[in-house]
Amino acid sequence: MINKMDNKAILSNGVEMPWVGLGVFQVENGQIVVDSVKAAIRNGYRSIDTAAIYGNEEGVGQGIKEGIAETGIKREDLFITSKVWNSDLGYESTLNAFEDSLKKLGLDYLDLYLIHWPVEGKFVDSWKALEKLYKDGRVKAIGMSNFQVHHLQEVMKNAEIMPMINQVELHPRLNHKDLRKFLKENSIQVEAWAPLMQGGLFDNEELLSIAKKYNKSIAQVVLRWHLQNEVVIIPKSIKEHRIVENADLFDFELSNEDMKKINSLNQNHRVGPDPDNFDF
């Protein structure tokens, strides 16, 4: 039962990952992302998720530095994720991209490094690079983002080290029941990006009714649904009151009936690209 902000998911290699983190997709580099990261750390967040393509790793790094100074926590208390972008896939280029991300973040190591998208013909070589980084102690855990079952199977049949995380678009309109079953069977933790469907759920009458029942917001109900499905979440916000609200998830529990109602909202509807059909 996930009932506290400091509860953690245990990855297949024993590394502990916070269930709730801050995502910074499309957050402008500079003071905006610095302040967002600091607000998150100030309010108990210990996980920050960025990526090379977001263009804000420098600001995230500065926010981490200032957040540590403000709160007195240690670097090892934080869980920092970044991702290698499509144009850098391949063995040597992935290693170089990792070093570039680390430099921009101002860190000595990452807690999690992911292959951002499954570019055919390239992601297996990149996985070999991630395995090297892991074996060299440069990163605590490795995984992928936006991988379907068949992508994962291709990596796994060529891998020395099994993926520990798969971060995918996941929300009540796209609940990935079959993918989550595969991940669970293979001890791969599922993590949701766009856990709130980028705001696309906030006028849903079913969710509004459930939210009123628990005296919570729709966002809180949906994020709680994720946690009760054992999904790691990284909701994004640049507003401190929203950052606080998105972590206020531990004083209520959705009933089995309400979990089923939310499960029934699935339409296999994406707000982001299809991993089997993307062009960037």
UniProtKB/TrEMBL annotation:
Q: Which family does it belong to?
A: Belongs to the aldo/keto reductase family.
Query: Which PROSITE patterns does the entry mention?
Result: ALDOKETO_REDUCTASE_1, ALDOKETO_REDUCTASE_2, ALDOKETO_REDUCTASE_3
Molecular function terms from GO: oxidoreductase activity, acting on the CH-OH group of donors, NAD or NADP as acceptor
What protein name does the entry list? Answer: Aldo/keto reductase
| NADP keyword on record | yes
Q: Which residues form a coiled coil?
A: none
Site feature Lowers pKa of active site Tyr, where: K83
Which residues participate directly in catalysis? Y54 (proton donor)
Annotated residues that bind substrate are located at H116
Which CDD domains does the record cross-reference, listed alphabetically?
A: AKR_AKR5G1-3
Which residues does the UniProt record annotate as the domain NADP-dependent oxidoreductase? 31-266
